[in-house]
Amino acid sequence: MATLTLGGDDVQVQEWAAILGALGAGGGITAFVGGMFGRKGTKLDNLGKLEKIATGIAERATADADRRVAGIEKEFAAHKAETAASVARRREAAAAHAVWDEQVAVKLRELGAEVSAPPSLEGVHL
Description:
The chain is mainly alpha-helical. Helix content is 71%, strand content 6%. It has a two-stranded antiparallel sheet with strand order 1-2. Strand 1 and strand 2 (9-12) form a beta hairpin.
């Protein structure tokens, strides 16, 4: 079985194939790795080839993750803006309603009705 020495440790071809498989590389790369070690070549050449493959896989995965994060951040910003607008609309409506409540209470008192103070909105998130 072909091995590659990394940092004093021998790494079997099957281990490289498993590593590349875990990184999302398909069977084609696994076959390539197996074929590469079946041919004559220096361990350093093979290591360089594997490093290029692994770097390419990692760069593509990072670019894909960056695109996904950018999309999520855009959606979050839109949601945050809509939530802020909704809160502002509710506060404006609550203020207008409080004014109306007071006007109605004054009119009822003028007609002789007993009207208690409105319930407190303290602690209510508008």
